[in-house]
Amino acid sequence: MASGVAGDMSSELFITVDPNPNCEAVDGMVYHALAVLPPVVRMRATHQGRDALWWVTGVEPNGQWRPVRAYKITDSGSGVAYLIAGGAWGLRFALSDTPPRWDLADPTQWGEPYKIYGDTQHLVFEREVSP
């Protein structure tokens, strides 16, 4: 399935990221979801040695942007983890004081298929951002 994440909370989440200009492709990762969290707008991540709080968006084909979803999932190592998923073309990150203008050609922005965290302390949910 090319939609990024498929399934409901009573079933498995199937993660696939199509070949694309944003990030590497991923085919067939399966996770068991326990809950859906609010959309994520920023998250702590390390890129090229820089650990920072990055803006994040989901990427769909042809550079369409979408909210980033967070799922509480089961994890064989720690019991519970948090899967952060974007669209069919993964997640896109930008470092900025204000919400960025997303652009697949911007060399200061970067992409990853998805992320998994052990807790939510490095995530900023949409409801936590002032207008």
Descriptors:
131 residues, mainly beta, 11-stranded antiparallel beta sheet
Number of strands: 11
Q: Separation of termini?
A: 35 Å
- Content-based structural category: mainly beta
Q: Total helix count?
A: 0
Q: Looking at the structure, what is the overall shape?
A: globular
Tell me the strand percentage band.
over 45%
What does the largest sheet look like? Answer: 11 strands, antiparallel
Mean pLDDT: 88
The ordered string of helix (H) and strand (E) elements is: EEEEEEEEEEE
- Fraction of helical residues: under 10%
- Total tally of structural domains: 1
Write down the Rg: 14 Å
Low-confidence stretches: none
Report on this model:
With 131 residues, the protein is an all-beta fold. The chain has one domain (5-128). Helix content is 0%, strand content 56%. The protein has no helices and eleven strands. It has strands spanning 5-6, 12-17, 26-47, 50-60, 64-66, 68-75, 79-85, 91-94, 110-112, 114-117, 123-125. Strands 1, 2, 3, 4, 5, 6, 7, 8, 9, 10 and 11 form an eleven-stranded antiparallel β-sheet that branches.
Blueprint of the fold:
Layout lengths: L4 E2 L5 E6 L8 E22 L2 E11 L3 E3 L1 E8 L3 E7 L5 E4 L15 E3 L1 E4 L5 E3 L6
Antiparallel strand pairs: 1-2, 2-3, 3-4, 3-6, 3-11, 4-5, 4-8, 6-7, 7-10, 8-9
